[in-house]
Amino acid sequence: MAKKIILGLALTLILIMPTTTMFAHADSSPTPPPSGTNYNIVGAGSSFVFPLMDKWRVEYNAFYPNVKLNYASVGSGAGINQFTKKTVDFGATDAPLFPNEMKAAPGALTFPESIGAITIAYNLYGVKTGLKLTGPTIADIFEGKIIYWDNPAITSNNPGVYLPHARITVVHRSDGSGTTFAFTQYLSTVSVQWKKDIGFGKTVPWRAGIGAPNNAGVAHYVQLTPYSIGYVELAYAMQNKMTYAAVQNADGDNFVLPTLDTTYNAAKQAGSLPASNGDWHNVSIVNEPGPNSYPIASFTYIVVYSDLSKLKSMTPDKAGVLVHLIWWMIHDGQQYTNNLWYVKLPDNVVQNDMNGLAMFKFKGHQLFNYTGGA
Description:
Oligomer: single chain
Order of helices and strands: HEHEHEHEEHHEHHEHEHEEEHEHHEE
């Protein structure tokens, strides 16, 4: 009888061990996805990061064919809404969660996973990339105060460039957008009047122009519309061979084009970052100082619940896969950033994310026991 009891206890321990410790390792990387079972990870949000996220989808599946990442590029606002409603495994946003959003999603963790630039793209026949624009001029254009391309505020900084007496068509986002958040945050920084009249957020009360959904929609509309101007993430501008402005830097002594180097120069000026479970709503890398810092730069973020058992579709194994996927994005996945016009995460940001990964649990059981280091 005693032997049967001991055998029963041993079998019970074997059955519960995978659930409680399978993915908890005091190491620099989580356990890779187990083979033999198919896993479907669902995310939604930022169109800013979509070109990179789509690349990650393909490359991660090449390494782990039983894991499929389904990502919907619906805009940051819609992504956070789905995240809050727990209909996706993670949300993606270019705007950090605000206190009211954190309250609606208790236990959320924030992970910067890439860095990009927002270009001021335009469609002007005969005008190449590099039209020089100051921050206040951009604000006045998007508020509808500067109506024609030959306005002195534009021509004075562009001697020798022919600018027609043609009406400017402003194109802005029609959806809740982290790109809009970063762009309008920049305009609120460089223009007191914009801050007073419009302010910043994922949606704002536009006073001029026409709306289009997502970065792709704005890029498409600008390409089709002569004399138009809009704001789009650098990857979209490059992939669509758009022309875009050189924007005056924060110091006021140079006009800077958006490139990998000038975006990195802005990102490296960022101060200490909050913990993944902290308050990120004041984090910003717009209008950072430096002669070659591009002034309209932004982190993009993944937001995930720290206790993954909150999600109905989640299992312990799938939770471990999600943790590994995020780890892979901030490590191996960074090799794909530059070719898509995103900036690799600096080491301090990766370290911050690693500490955040150690906060994941499933019904109280830690999923990744990170002890520091790589």
